[in-house]
Amino acid sequence: MKKTIVSALGVAAMSVTAFGASAATLDDVKAKGFVQCGVSQGLPGFSNPDSAGNWTGIDVDLCKGVAAAVFGDATKVKFTPLSAKERFTALQSGEIDVLSRNTTWTATRDTTLGLNFAGVNYYDGQGFMVRNDLGVKSALELSGASVCTNTGTTTELNVADYFRANKLEYEIVAFEKADEVVAAYDAGRCDVYTTDQSGLYAQRLKLTNPADHTVLPEIISKEPLGPVVRQGDDQWFNLVKWTHFAMVNAEELGITSANAEEMKNSDNPAIKRVLGTEGEFGAALGVGNDWAFNIISQVGNYAETFNRNVGPDTPLAIARGTNDLWSKGGLQYAPPIR
Amino acid sequence: MSNTKNSISFVRAEMVPEMAPPINESGVLGWMRKNLFSSIPNTILTLLALYILYLIIPGMIQWVLTDAVWSGESRLACATIAQGGELPNDWKAACWPYVGAYLKLFIYGRYPDAELWRVNMVLIMFFVGLVPLLMPNVGFKRENLVFMLVIFPIASFVLLSGGNLDLNGFLLPDAIMGPSEFKFWVDFLILSLIICGVVWAYMNATDTDPKQAVTITAITMAVLAVILFVMSVDFGLEPVETDRWGGFVMTLVIAVTGIVAALPLGILLALGRRSDMPAVSLFSVIFIEFWRGVPLITVLFMSSVMLPLFLPDGVTFDKLLRALIGVALFSSAYMAEVVRGGMQAIPKGQYEGAMAVGLNYWQSMRMIILPQALKIVIPGIVNTFIGLFKDTTLVSIIGLLDFLGIINLSHSDSTWATPVQAMTSYVFCAFIFFLFCFGMSRYSIYMEDRLNTSHR
User: Fold this and answer.
1) B91, part of any domain
2) Is A1 inside any structural domain?
3) CA of B103 to nearest chain A CA: how many angstroms apart?
4) Closest by CA position to B151, among listed B126, B133, B127
5) Is A211 in Cβ contact with B409 (below 8 Å)?
6) In this predicted model, what pLDDT tens digit does every residue of B307-337 receive, in sequence order?
7) Quick one: closest CA in A to B415, which residue?
8) Domains in chain B, number
9) Residue A157 belongs to domain spanning
10) B44: exposed, middle or buried (C-beta count within 10 Å: 0-12, 13-18, 19+)?
11) Dihedrals φ, ψ of B219, to 5°?
């Protein structure tokens, strides 16, 4: 009898949440009326809920942009917080439509996992933070240092590679959680704290005396972070890819959420094409021609989301650096919309 | 003997007035002498313990109360001068305004603001139903139990999720009948008939009167139908999906579901394991040993990472439901062994006596064996409950934002990032968990004393 109850409940539950994860993700998304977006379980500036419970961050804004492109309404997006371990399964199984979870683009992930990376919305890299009183100006002077880091991450392996390549002595002091690593570094258990640079800025806020610590200039690994979609659905892949490109293009052309409406009257054909007053670029993506206008007016251009979430006015205070536009010495470069 | 020497004997005519006990045997002094300083090793241990408390307590009070910050708008309220705030540089204490700002999130998770009254209703119903159930002197126990086990779960399901369950056919192929809500009821009827038929056939085969068993089965299926029907009615409530649930409410949902499911399932499994019927006993043994043989974290991982890969494309199970089923099955296996322990402690005479007065199996279990067995294992049962309550925090590993999960998540908010942020929230979390677990433990001791008809 009890087995019947369980199985009946199971059947009922399955019929409740049976959504398709077939090839045409865009059609499925349109049918269910929202974008299901996989985010992190809390990474400052990238995806974290504020005290009101609303998700904020660069990765979150990208998903909102996709929703704005598809529905013309940036609020039609739901977020699934995922651990590092389950993120790819969630995408493969169709539980989420797009994974925007500070995921590093690597060859293995791009090829063997059946996934496609739809661009890079943040160029990160592993860095070092040291105490000022060590007098160290470069990572090459770190011989003999003890290094605090998280266990079982690529950061640990990167450190090993870097120190071996430069023939430096070192000792790893590893902890499970970021909070423990910071506490240990703050208490002086190690000389150096290493993680992704964006993380270093976030964790510096948790130090007893932030001014006593410096982030060294060396970046010892490439961590291009970007949104991920399932392989084999080019239409959806294109849409996510161009959502990011539209935001970068908008920054380049000076279109912001504030002036998008009046920019529609601009004479510049490039701006006209982005805002959909000229050409049929939205139709080619399978959405409305005002797709980019919706993204920019509701979410903002790339500079706006960067500054809002991690920029100089936030507690994180990260400089644009490699994430500046290509024309200003950075790496953010978007193909033209034409 | 005294009579021979002295004819005047002393006879006391009135009672001697009671004297106060010796000063070092009563009052505070006596208590201390008896409990703290009864021997030299005990005295040393007492002094040592006092010294350790002296080291810990003042610092703790300072950290939690006197030095703590109580109001503020952002991390600057809890930041030292070096961190950009105004507190002295060696300050280290709790930052309560951060917990205050996040309190709503900690309790309700990301549940929509406009619908919070629904969660509050569920919480009120829970405590209003639970408190009289726990107080032995209050009447209407049977009605109360029905409320807590039938009405409350359905009502809270409808309130929390919004009800309006989309029922769909599951038995007949689509060719015979298109998918619709009506098809579900047709399928359900067919399923009920099949089950009743199987029960009837089984009872017939074992030479018992099938009438009673079939009636019970039919009533169960009817009750189930009513429950499913209520769940599928559209009450006009805004649907709230489980990814917006969280915080302490989710911890309660998982713990209460686990506890409510574990006890009856556990009792059935324990009976099954001691049963003479080979099929039933084998099934119970395999079930119990399987679930006891794997760690809960494996079960949760399996349900969240592997299960979606096994299911056909496009079929997704709600993540919370997966965790709920996993937790319920897991805890029922443990409960089964606890209950079995109690049943083994009952002397054989009780079983034989029950048979001798002509009770059948279910009657003897219900009236003789189980009341005694369950009474013996109250500490074990409550132990399992407390363990389950604390184990719910494991679900944060599969991305469900329970109480601890949402607390960890809040650390990523850089508006409150300070060195004391994590510690403050963990102290708060520990305090709440302690309140609940300690409450359960005290209640179990109270119940033990009350039910102690003593075999000792």
Assistant:
1) no
2) no
3) 8
4) B126
5) no
6) 877 777 656 678 888 889 899 999 999 999 9
7) A315
8) 3
9) 126-221
10) exposed
11) -65, -40
Q: Can you tell me the distance from the alpha carbon of B451 to that of B445, in angstroms, rounded to the nearest whole number?
A: 10
Question: How many residues can be counted in chain A?
Answer: 338
Shared-domain flag, residues A78 and A157: no
Q: Which residue has the tokens 């009673």?
A: B212
Task: Look at phi and psi of residue B233 and say left if phi exceeds 0, alpha if psi is from -120 to 50, else beta.
Answer: beta
Return all residues near A123 (Cβ < 8 A) that are at least 6 apart: A222, A223, A224, A225, A322, A323, A330, A331, A332
Is there a single domain that holds both residue B139 and residue B34? no
Note whether B212 and B317 are same-domain residues.
no
Domain range holding B18? 2-66
The strand pair at A55-56 and A77-81 is best described as unpaired
CB atoms B422 and A206 under 8 Å: yes
ipTM, 2 dp:
0.77
Q: How far is B121 from chain A (nearest CA, A)?
A: 21
Write the CATH number for B383.
1.10.3720.10
HSE-CB for B77 with a 13 A CA cutoff = 19
Residue B419: inside a domain? no
CA–CA dist B149, B263 (Å, integer): 12
Structural Rg of chain B based on CA atoms: 30
Report DSSP state, residue A338: -
| CA A210, A213, A218, A219 torsion-angle sign | negative
Please give the C-alpha separations between residue B144 and each of B133, B151, B367, B368, in angstroms, as whole numbers. 6, 10, 21, 23
CA–CA gap between residue A188 and residue A191 (Å, rounded)? 7
Q: What is the DSSP letter of A297?
A: H
Mutation target vs B (from A208, A230, A309, A316; most B CBs, 10 A cutoff): A208
CA distance A19 to chain B (A): 5
Residue-wise pLDDT for B256-275, tens only, equals: 999 888 999 999 999 999 98
Q: Are residues B242 and B288 in the same domain?
A: yes
B191-219 pLDDT per residue, tens:
888 888 888 888 777 767 778 778 888 88
Domain count, chain A: 2
